[in-house]
Amino acid sequence: MFYVMTTSPNRALGFVVATTSVVAAVLGGLQTFLHLSDQAAAHRAAAVEYSGIRRYLEEVIANYSSNGTHHDVTALRDRFDDITKGSPAVPRRIWARTEETLTDRT
Q1: DSSP labels for 14-27?
Q2: Is residue 57 located within the same domain as residue 87?
Q3: In this structure, are residues 17 and 4 in contact, taking their beta carbons and an 8 Å threshold?
Q4: What DSSP assignment string belongs to the chain?
Q5: Cβ-count burial of 46 within 10 angstroms (0-12 exposed, 13-18 middle, 19+ buried)?
Q6: Number of folded domains that form the chain
Q7: What is the pLDDT of residues 6-55, one digit of tens each?
Q8: Are residues 58 and 25 in the same domain?
Q9: Do residue 26 and residue 50 come from a single domain?
Q10: Complete DSSP assignment for 64-79
Q11: Percent of the chain scored above 90 by pLDDT?
Q12: Cβ atoms of residues 5 and 11 within 8 Å
């Protein structure tokens, strides 16, 4: 990177190359430090679990009978509790933005 700055006849190009290299290194280190890929994987896993709950709820509604309702609601609540315990928290600003979008739809 510094070799390009000293040997290149176009110093502006050398400066751009050097700056880009430094920024890429800093951003790569920051991404590693913040564990962004791990957070994304945890959110993806939680989404899969919540999708399972949605499908289960659709099945309960489709096969509605007065006999098993209490059992189904209890099982659904237990699944929600289990998933919530193991799921990462959604950042407050994303939660607020989503809530605002959903409020605007109604």
Answers
A1: HHHHHHHHHHHHHH
A2: yes
A3: yes
A4: -HHHHHH-S-HHHHHHHHHHHHHHHHHHHHHHHHTHHHHHHHHHHHHHHHHHHHHHHHHHHHT--SSSHHHHHHHHHHHHHHHHHHSPPPPHHHHHHHHHHHHHH-
A5: middle
A6: 2
A7: 565 677 777 888 899 999 999 999 988 988 889 889 999 999 999 999 99
A8: no
A9: no
A10: --SSSHHHHHHHHHHH
A11: 28
A12: yes
Q: Does residue 24 sit in the same domain as residue 43?
A: no
Say if CB 76 and CB 56 are below 8 A apart: yes
The pair of structure tokens assigned to 45 is 């896993």
Q: Which domain holds residue 47?
A: 35-106
What's the Cα-to-Cα distance from 25 to each of 9, 20, 31, 38, rounded to whole Å? 25, 9, 10, 20
Q: Flag whether the pTM goes above 0.85.
A: no
Return all residues near 61 (Cβ < 8 A) that are at least 6 apart: none
